[in-house]
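Predicting holo structure, fructose -6-phosphate bound.
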Amino acid sequence: GKDGYRHYMEKELHEHPLVIGQTLQRMIDPATRKVVLPEMPFDLASLPRAVITACGSAFFAGVVGRYWLEEIARLPVDIDVASEMRYRNPPLTPGSLGILISQSGETADTLAAMRGLKNAGLPILSVLNAEHSSMARESDVVLGTVAGPEISVASTKAFTAQLTVLACLTIAIARARGELDETGEEELVSALLDLPSRAAEVFTHDDAIRKMASVVAEARDVLYLGRGSAYPVAMEGALKLKEISYIHAEAYAAGEMKHGPISLIDRTVPIVATVPSGVLFDKTLSNLQEAKARGGRLLAFTDEAGADRLSAIAEQTIALPKVHPFVTPIIQTIGVQMLAYETALLKGTDVDQPRNLAKSVTVE
Ligand code: F6R
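Done. Tokens:
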């Protein structure tokens, strides 16, 4: 049942802290505070590249994973949506690792893309919520997201669990490649172990998120902006808004705005910005200043360290809990998913069963 929540989506949003914690329990040894992965039939130290593929939200989790694997593990990554990957026939570097991400383990395009990578000789590592699924059976290694059943058609907790697994995988690969020493691993693991309690604090902002939703619900079009690992979070926020509130939303890398979409900006197109403090904060802020100068209404998700400077320019600012920069996409995701949910409530749509959508897309 819904345990007293109005929708499965609301219940599942509130399961973020639990699910992140359960997933970490599977991947981090509490005694040594080290990431421990199952036995792998390939050597993580000698991978030349990774090829990631998935659909929808799972694809956005993969994009966050790419930022992590490139920056922290220094592993070259190719990524595409599975519906493209399956027909691209890309030249594959022998020994590369195929990584797929799926909640259901049954998505037709992801399964087909996986088979393509497998036939080309790549070992397959899957990040799956359904551990007894077609993808699980055909993978060399399965890393489980311990999200439990997800009933709401729009993915919520499975997505943060996917990010949690990809974060642990990044640490393991970085360590194997000699890119992360003991201190470095301890710092990143601490950041992950801190997440369940920080994630729970996001819900204390529900009034502020509802206030933001009242602006978004009036709009016909919404622009989501972010840079670095906050860019796929913007994509996730835009997809979730489209999916359940039927409001058109588009995510853009904040630096791309001046190459086109800035022409859209006026008072009627709110801008939802995902801007955690950190190395890209100033760059994103200057993109937002440009948008504001053209009449844009800024609605910003930042953290306690970024709140002062953002509230100087934004109409509404939400200061999410300050976490290690590594894990900011996980905290920011909860904020944008809650915004979509609150907006859909105001629109009165069928939150758990949006029109034209199925939970598991088993046809091409
Ligand atoms: C978005 C959503 C979809 C799925 C996509 C992949 O909220 O739920 O975009 O993420 O259909 O599904 P799985 O993860 O089952 O392969």
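DSSP finds 14 helices and twelve strands in the chain.
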